[in-house]
Each structure stands twice: as structure tokens, then as C-alpha cells.
Amino acid sequence: MPPKGKRKDASAANKTGPAGSKGTAQPPKSPPPNWPPLRPLVPASDLSLSTTLPNQIVTIRNFWPASLCKMYVSFLASLPLTTTPGKPKKGDAVRVNDRFQVEDARFAEMLWEETALKGLVVGEEDGFGVGEDDGLALSEEERRELWGGDVVGLNPNIRIYRYKKGQFFDQHYDDFNNVTIPGDPPIQARTTWTLLLYLTSPATGCLGGETVFYPEPPPGKKGKSQPVEPVVVGLEVGMALLHRHGAECMLHEGREVLEGEKWVIRSDLCVRR
Ligand SMILES: O=C(O)CCC(=O)C(=O)O
Ligand SMILES: [Fe+2]
């Protein structure tokens, strides 16, 4: 559990207006980009959820094929990314990367509905070819418990990160946010898991940049606890990673990029509130 007052992802609290209700700072307003179509995609029947750390980290390998990732990196490089300040406000994590942040419910919906993500997370046949086998074989009840409720979509707050050589995201916890998913009627929701979609890897010349999680040691006898090995998730082109955030978020970081560029698309899973 994140200790009170510990370093947070500054962007998590950086929301007001339709998508958020907790923060005070205004996010930079960017018009929604003209996102390229999400094609080609790997059929959902060829994809599955796999558990990296029970109840904490779930991945989908090859969620986006390499060709789509490559095309997206070229497109994203044309967006007006801004370098985050190296000196954080009190309580925020040191985060040195270039980012683009936009409120874009349309893109969040594309990423949720047009890909295999919804079918895998919600576990329903959605016309995209998803059967019963999401890889985790969860009951309805286990599914609700895992995702923290009834998942209704993705956070419209879309963040694009580019880390160049020497850039990193220091250790922090991701907070949850209350969001409104536009629609008729709009859905009042709360974020429960972070979604990271990696577009680059050593295969594209990006070395380093792993996302590293620090599980809390189980309480030992007489208050002494055993050290627990960090969980290092190496970059893979097109891999989606979901990790639990909010009260049960693990301390984590994006390690320094040693060579090339790391590109990530970030959103969050949202449940009905
Ligand atoms: O880029 C990464 O590997 C981690 C990003 C992250 O922790 C975040 O967006 O909160
Ligand atoms: Fe994070």
C-alpha cells in the first residue's frame, strides 16, 4: 500500500474538468490528434491475459503487432510532446521524459472496443473473436475482484511518453482518479488499474527502460520482513501491461533508457462507481 505522502505520479492528480475531480492543477489542453486507425490487429483468439504477479500485474503479449507499433511511433513523434520538468513539486516523483497528454474519449474507446482488450478483460464474446479463454479462466466473481468492479472502459486521459537516452520515471505510486466516460448517459467511473502499452523494445533499438515493481514484503515474525525481489518487466513491442493502482499500488519505476527511444501509451482501466 502506498504510504501517505509518498511520491506519486504527478499526472495522476493532474486532472480536473470532465475526466477528473481530485486534482487542482490544469492539464495542458491539447486538441485530440487524428489517430491512425488501429490496423492491423492480432485476432483476439490469438491473445490472452497472463499473470506476471498475482492480483497485481497482468500482461497481454503482442496486443499490438509490430507494424502498428512502428506506424504509431512515427505518428506520435509528430505530436507536440513536452519535456517534463526534472525538478518535481513536493511529493511528486522525479520524471524525466517527453509527454503528450490529451482528453480523448474517442481514442480511449477505440483502444477499448476495437482491440481485443475489452473482450479479454470483461471476458465476453464481443464480435472480435474472443471465446471463453481469456488466459486466466476467471469466474465472474473473481473477475470483478481482480479488476476492482465492473469494468466499463478506459480513462479518456491518454498519455504518450517518449523516453530518450538518459530519461526515466523515478519510483512512485499511481493514484486512482474519478472520471466521467462521455456517452448517453455518461458513465461515472473510477480508475483501478494502470494500462501501459509498449511500442518499442530492444528489437527496435531501445535498451533499458524496463518497468520495475517493488512488491511489499509479507510481514515477518516480530515485525521483521524478508526482502522481496523486484519484478522487472522488460520492454516488448506491442505488449500491454496492466497493474493495480490506488491503495494497493506497488512502488514502481521506469528505468533509465540506455539506448534508443522508449515509447509508451498510457491509460487506465475504469470501473463503474
Ligand atoms: O514508463 C514506464 O515504464 C512507467 C510509467 C509509469 O509508471 C506511469 O505512467 O505511471
Ligand atoms: Fe506509474
From TrEMBL:
Transmembrane segments: none annotated. Its cofactor is L-ascorbate. One of its GO terms (cellular component) is endoplasmic reticulum. Gene3D superfamilies: q2cbj1_9rhob like domain. The keyword Metal-binding applies. Signal peptide: none annotated. Residues 28-40 have a biased composition (Pro residues). PANTHER family: PROLYL 4-HYDROXYLASE ALPHA SUBUNIT, PROLYL 4-HYDROXYLASE ALPHA SUBUNIT DOMAIN-CONTAINING PROTEIN. This is Fe2OG dioxygenase domain-containing protein. It comes from Lineolata rhizophorae.
